[in-house]
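2024-03-11 09:14:02 INFO worker-7 job=invfold-0412 stage=load source=structure_tokens
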């Protein structure tokens, strides 16, 4: 399985952006697909995740009212819709694949990562 993110860019505060993560190869039904972000000087931060088999979703408190994660099994893709964006959302966003429902918010539980896509929000 290989992951490829796309959709990053430069937006203004209050704008929306949708990130895509294409899963190359067939994801196992037990997979958790998650979005994390990494800003300069900070640790990789959990954003959102979705369980591939049943679509259950998980969110970080910082984004749960603004971001929506979704999946399209037919397209082998996971999306992150980001609304009302803020300058503090600026980061490189990574898609990861893991299998631990108990540690869904921990980056170390994800074994496969994409190359990342840069998101910059200007004030």
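2024-03-11 09:14:09 INFO worker-7 stage=emit residues=123
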């Amino acid at each position: 399985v290989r992951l490829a993110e796309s959709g990053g860019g430069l937006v203004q505060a209050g704008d929306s952006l949708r990130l895509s993560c294409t899963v190359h190869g067939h994801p196992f039904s037990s997979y958790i697909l998650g979005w994390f972000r990494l800003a300069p000087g900070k640790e990789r931060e959990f954003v959102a995740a979705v369980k591939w088999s049943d679509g259950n979703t998980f969110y970080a408190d910082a984004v749960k009212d603004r971001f929506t994660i979704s999946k399209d099994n037919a397209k082998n893709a996971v999306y992150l819709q980001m609304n009302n964006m803020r300058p503090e959302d600026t980061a490189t966003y990574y898609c990861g694949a893991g299998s631990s429902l108990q540690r869904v918010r921990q980056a170390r539980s994800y074994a496969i990562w994409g190359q990342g896509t840069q998101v910059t929000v200007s004030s």
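2024-03-11 09:14:09 INFO worker-7 stage=report msg="The chain has a mean pLDDT of 95."
2024-03-11 09:14:10 INFO worker-7 job finished
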